[in-house]
Amino acid sequence: MTAALRDKRKLGTIVRKVLHLIFTIPLLLPFIAPSLIHLDPVAYYSLLTLIVGFVYVAYTKKHRLYIQFRDRIDLIRAQLNKITLAGHYSPATRTISIPLEHIQSALMKVEAKLREIIELAEREYERRYGYIGVLMGSLGVLCSYLLFRRYALYGILGLAVYDTVSAVAGILIGKRRIPLTEHTVEGCLAAVLVFFTVLIAVGVSPIHALALALTAMVAELFGIEDNLAIPLATSAVAYLLGSS
Predict the structure, then answer these.
(1) Distance between CA atoms of 126 and 117, rounded to whole angstroms?
(2) C-alpha closest to that of 137 among 231, 41, 14
(3) pLDDT at position 10 over 70
(4) By CB atoms within 10 Å of each CB, which of 89, 138, 200, 237 scores lowest?
């Protein structure tokens, strides 16, 4: 992997995890600012999941239309190329071809920049199938609250803190990859340490905090979708431990 590709991958991970953190803020509202939502938490999380699900379905259906639209743009660009080339040899169209060259160049730059920004934030399977991780995160938190009520807070914190630190630390300082996973030893250890510290800060006992941090690690490493597995597993263990 070239240095440029590594830098692009690092930037993409950081951008994606910043968006991930922003997404977890609405999930925390029933616990940190219930007066802002004016809804029962079950109703709130259900509504949030419905909205995210609607966006996901709309994206996957419209993605084909986007591809068709992009193909049309490519066809128009090809026609502009023909006119531009003809303008170099025909005095009648030379005055038209010059501004068309500038328009085409500007369109290509804008399209390339937008594509670069989107590709930084998207993972490969998200480009193919849509933002399934966001939907799974909403669904995981909804199920966590339905099953474990107030203990869902620890699942949301795991989603916000452990998941973010693991990915960012892994891409920045990760050296040793864990077999059969895409994660690194360094990323997991950093995430466990930071999540453990956050749990201690919110009043969880050290033993329970360590158990929850290790649960989040196992859920991320071996769960089919970490945005679903982390909140569910962490909330379940917090419930079983009776974490305060």
Answers:
(1) 14
(2) 231
(3) yes
(4) 89
Cα(170)–Cα(176) distance, rounded to whole angstroms?
Answer: 9
Alpha carbons 80 and 87: distance in angstroms, whole number = 10
- Segment 189-208 shows an average pLDDT of 96
Q: Is residue 162 within a helix (H) or strand (E), and if so which, with residue range?
A: none
Half-sphere exposure of 83 (CA within 13 A, CB side): 17
Of the given ranges (16-30, 94-108, 113-127, 165-179), which has the lowest mean pLDDT? 113-127
CB within 8 Å of 15: residues ≥ 6 apart: 120, 121
Q: Could you tell me the two tokens for 138?
A: 């909403």
Each residue of 60-108: pLDDT tens digit?
766 555 565 566 666 776 776 666 555 554 555 545 545 555 665 666 6
Cβ–Cβ < 8 Å for 234, 143? no
Partners of 177 in beta bridges: 184
117 or 149, greater pLDDT: 149
Q: Say if residues 133 and 227 touch (Cβ distance below 8 Å).
A: yes
Question: CA-based diameter of the chain, in Å?
Answer: 83
The residue type found at 145 is Y
Query: What own/partner pairs with CB < 8 Å and gap ≥ 24 does 188-197 have?
Result: 188/217, 188/220, 188/221, 190/165, 190/166, 191/161, 191/162, 191/163, 191/165, 191/166, 191/216, 191/217, 191/220, 192/162, 192/216, 192/217, 194/161, 194/162, 194/165, 195/157, 195/158, 195/161, 195/162, 195/165
